[in-house]
């Protein structure tokens, strides 16, 4: 997770480089960082749901919980 955030932070510096190369490099790094963060975020969420239903409710929205209670 930290590597993805660091990659996204480095792209800010690349965006300040002159010319198209800086912008293209920044765009590539933003995509790479977002890909890493998203993948690890979903893996962490899956782990929480795998632990048990006690902890799973913390990740759900109130409308989703209300639907389960009505069913």
Describe the structure.
85% of the residues lie in helices and 0% in strands. It has 71 residues and is an all-alpha fold. Helix 1 runs antiparallel to helix 2 (19-51).
Rg on CA atoms, Å: 18 Å
Query: Uncertain regions: pLDDT < 50 for 5+ in a row?
Result: none
Write down the overall geometry: elongated
Strand fraction equals under 5%
What is the count of structural domains? 1
Output the keywords:
85% helix; 4 helices; 71 residues; mainly alpha; 0% strand
Question: Mind sketching the topology for me?
Answer:
Layout: H1 2-15, H2 19-51, H3 53-56, H4 62-70
Give a brief outline of the structure.
The chain has 71 residues and is mainly alpha-helical. It is built from 4 helices and no strands.
